[in-house]
Design goal:
about 240 residues, alpha/beta, Spore Coat Polysaccharide Biosynthesis Protein SpsA, Chain A, seven-stranded mixed β-sheet, two-stranded antiparallel ribbon, 11 strands, globular
């Protein structure tokens, strides 16, 4: 029986946040940002295991962050890049998983993920699909800048999507793809699969699944999460 596992690369420092600690450990709604997606995946029966990949020298990690978790474990093998962390995490899984199982790779700093989005991604996979990712069609007009920060061109937004996570692929296929292109430093798992000759499927994500990158993002994501919760409470 095919199983679904989650891998969360968590070895980044998030320098653009300008914070004392990595952004995944910053507080939001009474708990660390990282704990929000963990709680979502923990509560989903379809998810078998959750793996957090951190750097071996991570001084900010505390085992108390996983208090009450039953499916989550830590892998101390994080790399210098996201791709390296994911690849080394997949290698560390070893006998814990089957190569034909699915792995959902999710950003540690996307606290707005919810079970509806995750299930939508899982349900969208057909037998002929090699995997896919949550994403949003671009709505804004795009401008390409020159080296002096002046507009050099307007880029058509037609058929353009903004990638989100989770990004979901068969464990064996993703591990093989990353092994082939790791030196090219793919920015996400979908790009690694693309470079390996595959065509991942785009599945509609959600605005609140925004990645926390800059200081103001915390307030934006927090507001979006609260608004969604308020809507659910009134239904």
């Amino acid at each position: 029986m095919t199983q679904y596992h989650v891998l969360i690369p968590c070895a980044g420092h998030g320098s653009r946040m300008q914070s004392a600690s990595p952004k995944q450990y910053l507080p939001m709604h009474g708990k660390p940002i990282l704990r929000h997606p963990i709680d979502i995946f923990e509560a989903m029966p379809i998810i078998s295991q959750i793996f957090i990949v951190i750097a071996a020298e991570d001084a900010y990690w505390s085992d108390t962050l996983l208090q009450g978790c039953h499916k989550t474990q830590v892998l101390y093998c994080g790399g210098d890049t996201r791709a390296a962390s994911v690849y080394q995490g997949l290698q560390a899984l070893g006998s814990h998983v089957d190569s034909e199982d699915w792995v959902l790779v999710h950003d540690a700093a996307r606290p707005g993920i919810d079970a509806h989005m995750v299930q939508r991604l899982i349900d969208a996979m057909q037998p002929t699909d090699i995997g896919g990712l949550l994403a949003l069609p671009l709505a804004d007009t795009l401008k390409r800048a020159d080296e002096t920060q002046h507009v050099s061109a307007t880029v058509s937004r037609e058929l353009l999507w903004q990638a989100q996570t989770p990004q979901m692929f068969k464990i064996g296929m993703l591990q093989q793809a990353l092994a082939q292109v790791l030196n090219r430093q793919p920015t996400d798992e979908a790009q690694a699969m693309e470079w390996a000759g595959h065509t991942p499927k785009l599945v509609l994500g959600d605005l609140k699944n925004l990645k926390v990158t800059y200081p103001h993002d915390i307030a934006v994501v927090s507001a979006l999460m609260q608004a969604t919760q308020s809507e659910q409470d009134t239904e």
